């Protein structure tokens, strides 16, 4: 049982920046991957960025060079620094955690989501 709490969303003008944070708590044994996904109204949820416990990162093509993901293994937190934001970045952003060394039913967790709106 893992609970994820996101923060940092809000309204920002195009070209601006936001920093999203996610804290994991509960029955944490071993986190293998943490990341961020997003979902715009009427669209599928899509990957934004992930980072492994070994600090390997993976970014969606549309955020490369603009977003940076980081994690603190000791605190079980993951952040997403978003720069040069565009209107098309507007979405609900969800924190994601993939646990290692647990059965499938206890492996994947999602936060409640935080709204990011990019508009002039």
Kindly report the average pLDDT value.
Answer: 96
Helix-strand string: EEEEEEEEEEE
Strand coverage percent: over 45%
Structural class: mainly beta
What's the N-to-C terminus distance?
40 Å
Q: TL;DR?
A:
This protein has 120 residues and is mostly beta strands. The protein has strands at 2-7, 10-12, 18-26, 31-39, 46-52, 57-59, 67-72, 77-82, 91-99, 108-110, 114-118.
Topology (elements, then pairings):
Blueprint: E1 2-7, E2 10-12, E3 18-26, E4 31-39, E5 46-52, E6 57-59, E7 67-72, E8 77-82, E9 91-99, E10 108-110, E11 114-118
Parallel strand pairs: 2-11
Antiparallel strand pairs: 1-3, 3-8, 4-5, 4-9, 5-6, 7-8, 9-10, 9-11
Describe this structure in words.
With 120 residues, the chain is mainly beta. The protein has no helices and eleven strands. The chain has strands spanning 2-7, 10-12, 18-26, 31-39, 46-52, 57-59, 67-72, 77-82, 91-99, 108-110, 114-118. The strands form two sheets. Strands 2, 4, 5, 6, 9, 10 and 11 form a seven-stranded mixed sheet that branches. A hairpin with a 4-residue loop joins β5 (46-52) and β6. The model has no long low-confidence stretch (mean pLDDT 96).
């Amino acid at each position: 049982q893992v609970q994820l709490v996101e923060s940092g969303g809000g309204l920002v003008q195009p070209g601006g920046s936001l920093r999203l944070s996610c804290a994991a708590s509960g029955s944490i044994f071993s986190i293998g991957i943490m990341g961020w996904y997003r979902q715009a109204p009427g669209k599928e949820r899509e990957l934004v960025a992930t980072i492994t416990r070994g600090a390997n990162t993976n970014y969606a093509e549309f955020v490369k060079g603009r977003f940076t993901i980081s994690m603190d293994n000791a605190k079980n937190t993951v952040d997403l620094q978003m720069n040069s934001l565009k209107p098309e970045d507007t979405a609900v952003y969800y924190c994601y955690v993939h646990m290692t060394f647990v059965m499938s039913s206890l492996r994947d967790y999602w936060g409640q989501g935080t709204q990011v709106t990019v508009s002039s």
